[in-house]
Amino acid sequence: MEKTVPQEKKKKSDKWFWIILAVVITGLICLRVFVLDWIWISGESMLPTLTDGELVLAEKVSKNTGGLSRGDLVIVIYPDGMQCVKRMIGMEGDTISIQDNMVIVNGDVIEEPYLNENSFPDMQTVVVPENSIFVMGDNRNHSSDSREPMIGPIPDDNIVGQAISVIYPFDRIRGVK
Asked: Strand 154-155 to strand 174-175: parallel, antiparallel, or no bridges (unpaired)?
């Protein structure tokens, strides 16, 4: 004689399945909206740090807790709506200039070991406005960034998060700095 699960028990297990599924989906949505984001790298503006075709994971918490620092990689939204990864060079109130292939922040030349090439045009002094950051690509000669008048300093509201790791392709998984 074949045993059958009583109809009432089956309905209960189906109900729990849907409740658990709803909780998991809600959790994943909250994680995506409030904690994590990602972006595909397209182009060569962040070479050698990031390369075309890599998928970068970012956390969103630091931008809301004052945890971002000069030198961090951040995902930002440009005035035209495009999202991209750039290096944060300056914060509100900083004075930034470029002279003789050196970036000068508040009168100090910053060390940039992540650059392959140290040949890029001079830039007049810029003061980063309140509630904004100044960003540049690591591949300075092939990057559209805050040096361009059409982009300029990025408002804090246009910071998506801090890039923390490359998660694809799998053979290039690594943390990023």
From this structure: unpaired
Q: Which residues contact 10 (CB under 8 A, 6 or more apart)?
A: none
- Say which of 45, 132, 143, 146 is annotated catalytic: 45
To the query of whether residue 119 is one of the catalytic residues in this protein, the response is no
Angstrom distance (rounded) from CA 111 to CA 70? 11
Secondary structure class of 80 (helix, strand, coil):
coil
- Quote the CA–CA distance of 139 and 133 in Å, as a whole number: 19
| Domain 37-175 classification at class level | mainly beta
Note the helical H segments in the chain. Answer: 7-30, 61-65
pTM: 0.85
> Of 60, 86, 132, 143, which residue is the catalytic one?
86
Cβ atoms of 58 and 165 within 8 Å: the answer is no
Separation of alpha carbons 139 and 17, rounded Å: 50
Task: Say if CB 88 and CB 71 are below 8 A apart.
Answer: yes
pLDDT digits (tens, 9 = 90+) for 6-42: 666 667 778 888 888 899 999 888 888 788 989 999 9
62 is catalytic: no
